[in-house]
């Protein structure tokens, strides 16, 4: 480990050296001087070391260029959504049909008629479930009667889940065959309406190697195989990149049956692979499995991996996964240090979208840079430069343009520090000036429009690691450093919260909400939840660096309900958590860095990488609200991933551009326009997913205003 450097002539690389600046890393990078690569030749995982998976011909390995990079050594099939890989019409176990089944569950019929006083409209059959087996589409004709008279050809039909299927003009329901699930079929005739449920279950079996015939009855439990990634009970959001399943204690050439099932999707694949044993779940199948789910708790994903070794077939090793029924908007900006990546530049900030499994080098200033933060609208990144000046000069980047360009503040030796945080509207920065003397470090407010200092000392000397709440009404920081040197080497600090006064640059009601106390380490790097009610923070044992031990914690902004996020940080090597810009699917989402092993891909490397955990909303009183985390695919696993900051994508300014929800648009409103959604202006009320100030703004009664957007209440 490097010792602390305080001699000015040696400070030009402080930001780039992982143990010296921005509070991080393992300290295994060699100081090789400005502009040179630190660290030994790359020891990144060699994809060729993974044996072939006969179920899929491709290896997931994102391209590397000046704008995109990432190493993913998964073995398996990654295809675009909509790719049909069905080999035939082999029926899944337990299904006695080879071409699809229609199940009439009329014993539990719904009330389908609406009596308006003039007559009763009825739909038949009721509550049907169609089984699509290996791509064989099964349709269902419907009839409608009014007071017993057939009016099928005269009613208006609709089905509310077009991704599952559609009702055609001849009253025949046709599944898409892509997604399973349940929806509502509605008929309207004159002033009467009737409805019933129509469900579709997808059953798919893939056996490209013809392995199933040799699959006999199990001889007993598997004596050795253990799944090392993902973790049991992991919660995933929609649209996140498919996981690479990884397992140990097996032999080359073993055969496998992987079975994933939930209420409306059943997927089986047979394959063989060598060690280290890994299988990348096909991207299209993962999307279909995810979006066919009905709720993270009510419809869990059953995962079973069964092995055949020699002539012995063993019982399956099982896990349960959970799928939150909402996407995770935004991207993670993180500081990458070279680690063992040969030829990689020292210290740069990258971005990565959890659903893309590919990192992006969005800006190249020509020097080492880091200690970044991002505005609430996702359009501006603030960072500091290691260009030979101390303190490190501050600058801002406009990431709404492509390629990104300098924003209002360019590197200026007269304006510097380390970490900072934007206020709610991106017009101000709260920054630690960090003069290499923690006792005298102060927080100041900077005008993000021109770089002028609006308040030179917001709290008192001895404060750093600032955070600003999404509503702009509170700040948080760590204060009470007792050591000289960098703030991130100070082993004494309290977590402090203060109210921002109406002038936007001064504070009042300063309060210690988490004292250092008698526990190991100290509070570090606080971050506010999107609804302003919680703060997540780490507690490292070596200042605020990621070199020692560390757990994650959650606390209310008044110091209430302090709890350890034990499931998320069970490795005791977890640091620097930040909330996603919105909660989604009934959960808060937190990205953090951890030095834990990543399955059998990174073992014993002790190298920090990005992970994401779901936090129950609301956090369960008195208990651990976190869940086992998942790995963010697309990082360079030979590098050190530091200081992750979750932010929305740069919002779209222009009207009529395609969007998914209001957070995508600077107006806050994504409006349905025919078959697509585009950015627009608010109508009489706010549709689901669009900006709001209160529940009264939202069009639908069951869609409350949460985190500034009308959010659907998704099933759990």
Number of helices, counting only DSSP H or I runs of 4 residues or more: 1
Strand tally, please?
A: 51
Low-confidence stretches: 1-13, 17-68, 77-101, 103-111
Provide the β-strand percentage band: 35-45%
The value of Rg in angstroms is 28 Å
Mean pLDDT: 86
Largest sheet: 11 strands, mixed
Main structural class? mainly beta
Q: Ends: how far apart?
A: 47 Å
The residue fraction in helices comes out at under 10%
Write down the oligomeric state: single chain
The gross shape turns out to be: globular
Region (Disordered): 26-121
Signal peptide: 1-21
Keywords: Signal
InterPro entries: 6-blade_b-propeller_TolB-like (IPR011042)
Keywords:
signal; 36% strand; disordered N terminus; 6-blade_b-propeller_TolB-like; eleven-stranded mixed beta sheet; 716 residues
Give an overview of the whole structure.
The chain is mainly β and 716 residues long. The protein is built from 1 helix and 51 strands. The strands form 13 sheets. Strands 4, 6, 10, 13, 14, 16, 18, 19, 21, 22 and 23 form an 11-stranded mixed sheet that branches. It has a 5-stranded antiparallel sheet with strand order 2-26-25-24-47, with no helix packed on it. A 4-stranded antiparallel sheet has the order 27-28-29-30, with no helix packed on it.
